[in-house]
């Protein structure tokens, strides 16, 4: 009889796409994939080091698995497994922990699935994680996450990702295009490009440190893949977002006018401490360039509050900077100390209560920004891709420029694109519309 395997993914889109690759390995070995809430013979948890209280979350998930099947084999992979293998191995019920180089070979480490007396660790020095494994995942039947790059050569002082994922390296252009074609054959309408630092695309494509191709080459070629209706650049560092890429997106067949650009701080003092590779002036310039060629573009911003040395003045600088900028929403992260990072030893620690107060202020600003952006879009005609879930009697969808819309549930709309006129904002902040043509 086939053995059952279940997966739990924490963290980013990259982790989701890698879980899919690991799941395919199991399928090739004859396993049957079931939901995490179902009884499985093996539970695989793909961990994240960025997640707040990562250890607590992990323990809860292990307990959840054990409750469903106390005899199941439990394996942990992913960033947290690379950074703190022993910590995870010591959690009651864990049988196997695999580091960055071993995670894709997981089935080699599994024999008869009988439980171990202790958590077995197979880890590596992160310097050894210099090879590339391509991945993509199908999210919710409407969009796919396509991994194009992994690792990062930057040295941002708060970040553990280079320690968990290794140096910057890329998939080959041929392989990315092949994956994109494969996805399009599955009737998926949208591809989201993922990676750790995707603007660095091309580095290490053929195992060396050179850029064989650039991110601009990648976007240019992907835009030509037939059958993909939409392509979305997920997150790109501001210093790597070139004018040529912005221009290309503005004239593109499939790339949508939506950018997510990490800022992290609006104070140059803090940006320097973070060792980011730009100053706030460059960020303004990027936003202005996008808006100049695509006034309707949606721009999302990552920002960290409570970084060491962030005084009230520095925070206000960030707040006012963002308030004045023509952006559409914020993702606010509260700074938390990470082992083995430079920032963890910096002076000027911001008290936890101040961090959460600042986070609340910026989240409030984000609500206002999103509302203003949506209001600005009312009366315009946009194309919506409808999602697959019935959410309390409604179906949701996103326009090309990331306005979230809703309408009463109609299963025939799932995974279809429709031109609509955005008409009003509901109490829950989502946008109503009229179909331009009769729906279906
Ligand atoms: S760019 Fe900075 S924050 Fe982003 S992964 Fe690289 S080191 Fe981390």
Automatic annotation (TrEMBL):
Enzyme class name: transferase
Catalytic activity: N(6)-L-threonylcarbamoyladenosine(37) in tRNA + (sulfur carrier)-SH + AH2 + 2 S-adenosyl-L-methionine = 2-methylsulfanyl-N(6)-L-threonylcarbamoyladenosine(37) in tRNA + (sulfur carrier)-H + 5'-deoxyadenosine + L-methionine + A + S-adenosyl-L-homocysteine + 2 H(+)
Coiled coil regions, renumbered to chain: none
EC number annotated for this UniProt entry: 2.8.4.5
Reported cofactor(s): [4Fe-4S] cluster
GO MF term (any one): metal ion binding
Short name of any one Pfam family annotated for the protein: Radical_SAM
Role noted for this protein: Catalyzes the methylthiolation of N6-threonylcarbamoyladenosine (t(6)A), leading to the formation of 2-methylthio-N6-threonylcarbamoyladenosine (ms(2)t(6)A) at position 37 in tRNAs that read codons beginning with adenine.
Family in the record: Belongs to the methylthiotransferase family. MtaB subfamily.
Name used for this protein in its record: Threonylcarbamoyladenosine tRNA methylthiotransferase MtaB
Gene name linked to the record: mtaB
């Amino acid at each position: 009889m086939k053995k059952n395997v279940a997966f739990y993914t924490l963290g980013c889109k990259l982790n989701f796409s890698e879980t899919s690759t690991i799941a395919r390995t199991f399928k090739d070995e004859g396993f049957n994939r079931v939901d995490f809430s179902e009884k499985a013979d093996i539970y695989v948890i793909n961990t994240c080091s960025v997640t707040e209280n990562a250890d607590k979350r992990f323990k809860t998930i292990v307990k959840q698995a054990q409750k469903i099947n106390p005899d199941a084999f439990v394996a942990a992979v992913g960033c947290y497994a690379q950074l703190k293998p022993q910590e995870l191995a010591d959690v009651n019920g864990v049988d196997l922990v695999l580091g960055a180089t071993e995670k894709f070979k997981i089935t080699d480490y599994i024999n008869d699935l009988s439980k171990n007396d202790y958590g077995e660790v197979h880890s590596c020095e992160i310097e050894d994680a210099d090879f590339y494994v391509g991945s993509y995942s199908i999210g919710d039947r409407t969009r796919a996450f396509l991994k194009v790059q992994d690792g990062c050569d930057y040295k941002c002082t708060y970040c553990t990702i280079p320690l968990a994922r290794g140096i910057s390296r890329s998939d080959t252009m041929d392989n990315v295009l092949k994956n994109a074609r494969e996805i399009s054959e599955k009737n998926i309408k949208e591809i989201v490009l993922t990676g750790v630092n995707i603007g660095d695309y091309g580095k290490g494509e053929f195992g060396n440190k050179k850029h064989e191709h650039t991110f601009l080459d990648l976007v240019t070629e992907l835009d030509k893949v037939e059958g993909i209706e939409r392509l979305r650049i997920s997150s790109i560092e501001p210093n790597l977002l070139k004018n040529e890429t912005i221009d290309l997106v503005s004239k593109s067949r499939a790339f949508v006018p939506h950018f997510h650009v990490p800022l992290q701080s609006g104070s140059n003092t803090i940006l320097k401490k973070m060792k980011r590779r730009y100053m706030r002036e460059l960020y303004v310039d990027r936003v202005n360039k996008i808006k100049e060629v695509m006034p309707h573009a949606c721009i999302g911003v990552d920002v960290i509050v409570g970084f060491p040395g962030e005084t009230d003045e520095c925070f206000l600088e960030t707040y006012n900077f963002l308030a004045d900028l023509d952006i559409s929403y914020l993702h606010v992260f509260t700074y938390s100390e990470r082992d083995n990072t430079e920032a963890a030893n910096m002076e000027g620690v911001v008290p936890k209560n101040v961090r959460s107060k600042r986070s609340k202020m910026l989240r409030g600003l984000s609500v206002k920004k999103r509302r203003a952006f949506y209001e600005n879009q009312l009366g315009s005609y946009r194309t919506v891709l409808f999602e697959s879930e019935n959410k309390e009697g409604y179906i949701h969808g996103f326009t090309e420029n990331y306005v979230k819309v809703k309408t009463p549930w109609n299963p025939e709309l799932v995974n279809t694109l429709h031109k609509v006129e955005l008409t009003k904002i509901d109490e829950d902040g989502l946008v109503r519309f009229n179909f331009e043509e009769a729906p279906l």
